[in-house]
Amino acid sequence: MSASRQSQRQAVTEFDLNRFLEESTAQVNRTLDRALPSERTRPATIHKAMRYSLFAGGKRMRPALCLAAAQACGGQIADALPLACAVECIHTYSLIHDDLPAMDNDDFRRGKPTNHKVFGEGIAVLAGDALLTQAFELAAQCRGWPRYAHQDVVLELARASGSLQLIAGQVADLEGEGRRISVADLRYIHERKTSALLCCSVRLGGMSANCTAARLKALTQFGYHVGLAFQVIDDILDVTQSSEKLGKTAGKDTAAQKATYPAMVGLEKSRKIAQQLTDKAFAALKPFKGRAVALESLAGFLLNRDC
Amino acid sequence: MSASRQSQRQAVTEFDLNRFLEESTAQVNRTLDRALPSERTRPATIHKAMRYSLFAGGKRMRPALCLAAAQACGGQIADALPLACAVECIHTYSLIHDDLPAMDNDDFRRGKPTNHKVFGEGIAVLAGDALLTQAFELAAQCRGWPRYAHQDVVLELARASGSLQLIAGQVADLEGEGRRISVADLRYIHERKTSALLCCSVRLGGMSANCTAARLKALTQFGYHVGLAFQVIDDILDVTQSSEKLGKTAGKDTAAQKATYPAMVGLEKSRKIAQQLTDKAFAALKPFKGRAVALESLAGFLLNRDC
Prior knowledge:
The structure is a homodimer of 307-residue chains.
Chain A: H1 3-14, H2 17-35, H3 44-54, H4 61-72, H5 77-98, E1 108-109, E2 112-113, H6 115-119, H7 121-139, H8 150-161, H9 166-176, H10 183-208, H11 213-240, H12 243-246, H13 252-255, H14 261-265, H15 267-284, H16 293-304
Antiparallel strand pairs in A: 1-2
């Protein structure tokens, strides 16, 4: 290990990830709470349903990645916060819709009954729609930066969430159930279902710090690989952990005959792949010369998580 | 009738609305066709589903109102087109989701089977999501104008479509089924379910022409009243026209025990209300001194339509 690499590792060790996550989660929750109409605002049902899923105890990983990227580029948290919250709204909407009976048909999420189990399918569809719309209202709070106009921010968010990325992933996932697909097809699904929005999170963080094109490229590489690793780990946890631990029904992938890395290449090789992807994410941070400790720490945390 | 009012009427008579609608529809369809991924773009299913509903023969009234407002304010069609198309994407997404079994449970729309009848519920939910997202990608094509920043445009679109407006209308409509509600409650539903997006259409047209605050206010008044009239007429047609004529199941409101103007105040009074609302819309156009012929003509057309 080179001296610089060693000092980078040292910095990561000293970095207090728990504190960073606590602080970023508190800031994100506060911003979301202010942005969303209260539970009593008419029509109360929709605002209760939106808030039910948005404040169901999500780990706020995407916002944390967004804020960490902004920090790595020397930006202000306040500039990145609306975008971090926008990404979380999109993530939550996608979970509500994916859980619907017509899709993954899940009864539990984050340890609680899914949105449609509590509010009914109609309201769950509308709560997802409302959170997706809310994401763009949040994005409209940004003013744009010298290198990135406001249009760039909206385009980034819309493309990552659109029919060629996030939604494409869910469609391919739905269509792949019970069918034999190739590892390349599985990679296609993971790139879109998970990597696209994670990548978008760090890119938006960088953009909010008016980062250089070179740094945006580095963040893109980082986000892409962390996103892929994240989904491989998710598939591993679905096989190895209990429903109680995960807060959602474990073993669903096997039951739905979904293609996953563990099913296709086995558990041991899947773990190796997750490690290799995380290493590539670490390598992408080289241009930050040790100033991306929060990002590096988050990538390590996501690799080693058990739920 | 005053001389100026008479000359305004004269201008409207001479204005060729059919030609205006033909041209605006052609431009909107071309722009939408270019903006959306082709039917063969992977995953093909979602792009087929999006295009199925978007090109199902909708009358493109909202885009026409947007372009007419831009014209009335001396703007360029090219500046307003992406916004006109964004509004149409939002309108179409809302129809796909409203038609779902968990909501209005409709089998026909624009004379064709509804999206979920052709593609299944899961894809229909995702096609709606994708069109909503596409709307903001289209909005990101605008550059902003001296009086209206790009943020203002995104905020306008997000608010009109969000949980306090368009979605609020659908929620209140769902919750009102089979219950006695007041005329004030019915007005609340109409304002949100229909008026919000129509009003947004003309406002965005005005903004794209960098209109003055006074003209934006006039357009807001116009859009609000045209939107309310539009929904009263819709309720009347649901009672008086056949399913074949409407291209959707007629008599649904009565069957679903929905509150409507005809049900609450009778057909004759409903027609009178629609006329009064349209008159208020006409009156709002006064500051344009006869240069808003397309808008005036559209309002008259919407009042007298039979499907």
